Amino acid sequence: MIILFFLSSGLFLGWSLGANDAANIFGTAVGTRMIRFKTAAIVASIFVILGAVIQGAGANETLGSLGSVSTLAAAFTVALAAALTVYWMTRMSLPVSTSQAIVGAIIGWNLYTNNSTDLSTLSKIVTTWISGPILGGLFAIPLYMLVRYLSKKTKTHVLFLDAYTKYGLLLVGAFGAYSLGANNIANVMGVFTSSVNLPAIDLGFAIFSGTQQLFLIGGVAIAVGIITYSKHVMQTVGNTLMPLTPEAAFVVVLSQSLVLFVFSSQGLSDALVSLGLPAIPLVPVSSSQVVIGAIIGIGIYKGGKQIKFKILGSISLGWIATPLAAGIIAFFMLFFVNNVFQQDVGGDRQLTQISQVLRSDSTSNINDEFADEINPDTASKNTLDAFKNHDNELPAFADNTNIHIYYLIGMSILLLVAAVLIYWMQKNKKQNLLEKASHNAKEESHKLKLERLEKSLEDKRHLQEDLGKELKFRQGEMVTMAMSIIRKNEFINELKEEVIKIKSQVKEHETRLGLNRLSLMITRDLSIDHDREKFQMNINAQHSNFLHKLTESFPTMTDNEKRLASMLRLNLSSKEIASILNISPKSVEMNRYRLRKKLKVDPKVNLSDFIREF
Amino acid sequence: MSLLYKNVKQLVFDIDIFIDTVEQGVLVFKEGVTNYLKDERASFADKIIQISKLESSADKLQRKIDDLFYRHSILPQNASDIESMLDKIDEIIDICKDNLYQFDDELPFVPKELRNDFIRLVDISVESALNVFPAARAFFREPLKVKEMLAKVYFYEKEADKISRNIKRRLFHDMKDLQLSQKMHLRYFALHIETVSDKAERLADTLSILALKMSL
Lengths: 614, 216
Hints:
The complex is a heterodimer of chains A (614) and B (216).
Chain A: H1 2-31, H2 37-55, H3 57-66, H4 72-91, H5 98-112, H6 119-153, H7 158-189, E1 201-202, E2 207-208, H8 210-237, H9 246-262, H10 266-274, H11 287-301, H12 310-339, H13 348-374, H14 381-505, H15 509-527, H16 530-542, H17 544-553, H18 559-569, H19 574-581, H20 585-598, H21 607-613
Helix pairs in contact in A: 1-2, 1-4, 1-7, 1-8, 1-9, 2-7, 2-8, 3-6, 3-7, 4-5, 4-12, 5-7, 5-12, 6-9, 6-11, 7-8, 7-9, 9-11, 12-14, 13-14, 14-15, 14-16, 14-19, 18-21, 19-20
Chain B: H1 2-37, H2 41-71, H3 79-106, H4 112-141, H5 146-149, H6 151-173, H7 180-215
Helix pairs in contact in B: 1-2, 1-3, 1-4, 2-3, 3-7, 4-6, 4-7, 6-7
């Protein structure tokens, strides 16, 4: 039971890892509705546990060589310090990684317990943090190129491609969850492996070691984090970094899984060594930072326009700020656990306690010896020797006190630096938020403006359409009117010819006079045609712009020429114009010829076409 | 997951059948107009029934496709675009059916001199639509090839415009014996037939934008 209590900080760390990092694996797939959350959560939970149990040992060894936290209380404190750092920095929306927090906390433990930090291991870990995102990008570019090439080359139906992408996302998600479990379980349970020794269980076909049992518990904690809280993270931050297409998401998750797998696979490392190549450092890396590296890789392949390089700055800041904060928190918490709760935290601190016990014993001896001095009966030469011995021990005690003071001063300086750093980050964050808010406001106003413009454009388009329809209708009306005039005039001309014919056959004077009058009336009606006048007025009104433009361009044009131009614009033939104007078609042809000359129209160009396009 | 594959397979099949149905509808429209112009009334009546059935089955298929897309969350990011494209394909068979019914309802008088022009207009307009369907099919498999496949659609659409204009010019310039009402009536029928190629052109525009979007 007490072990479970001490494991609780690690389990909390596991829970937060599951809640946050599952979004790196299934965030886009769930966010774009390619995969249901339920399916994603089940697959991720199963594979994260499998990865932790089967392949979690490699990265754990590296963390162990950085600092083997030897007591349960210290392991609890270190994991709690890392968990609090992750929780606190996440709350403040600062870039944070569990891997970096746990490394910082272990270094904090090393400092507190006077354990030396293996600098070669530390440099190996830090190099991996940097190379992780770079490797993510390097994996992503050729993978993305390959996926694009295959999708183009195989001529797969878009809908089948979508189905294959869904299967692919689920498969790489499973692989990603396995790699996450394998690589990151050391962050969650690594610090407990030296202090918790569970008995191995013989399963018949394999031995289930104590470390594996611990990793199973940690894996379950990660799975609980995935099931209980990752949906929220997937929906809120899943696509914040950059909206990804399912195809790109597939590549990003695969790249991340490969990087995590590479940094946790003992087999792969051994294979490289057997080939004479250097071994792969098995180190827990931040899955979020590898994802960012992969996305930037794709961005570079696409031309690099969409990349937000500010993110790179925030990653670098995370490399420094997270371990620093976790180290300081771990140091102070260990101090409390050690001195207030009187728990053994391992390393030199255990010795210090013993020396303190010794010191209190020796001080009581001194008192006794002073008492002896007061009592002359018990004074002896040995007493003087004892004093000399104690004089030799006191400088050592003073040295320890000095170390304490140096530690406190050092830690205070670090705390101050961390506080300044955090204040600066907070300020930056606020500024960023303000900038973001102002950017959003600008974008919103721009969007509104655009919408308004689009609406007014749409209105104008409708208006133009209506006007176009109206114009078409009017033109149709004009043509109808012209046709009716033509028909009427044709009929009247026929009537006139008929009257003249009858008149030539009739000899009676009275009748001839009557027919003459009739002929005259018809001629008058033809010359003073009200319909024609109305038609002319309509043409003038409708083509006012055209006539105005024509007058401006050719000021010498007569009214008759303008009238002819208007009729040609209506697409009327010479014969029809002749009928409307009550002149002969020959005269119309002549007028057309004159008009052509005046308008300086190329002989190859049709006059009607020229006027219509004018 | 195997259910997803089954649904996708069904959807691909339905989309193919849908495009085939619309393509058949366009061919029936062409035959129907030719039958009308050649005064083959029995065949024309048969075409009316055929196009009506094809249009109704295209509508049913479209509804089924919509349902499959949304119910099984297939291609969630592009589903609405694809549906709007399918909607434009459906508009082609809709307009073909409407036009054929207009011939049946209004019985326009087409003078002999203009019959060949009308037959040519319907041929070219339908050709424009027939060339857009392979592009619509290619969109699902080779989006990058769509653009080059659409060149013919734009060409035939312009040709249909020219023929239609020519018919109108001939109607109002040369056909003295026709009444104005008859001229106007025929003018609208030239416009109706031309609309098929206009719809094909709109679909072509949508396809080229969608293809570009998919290839990004």
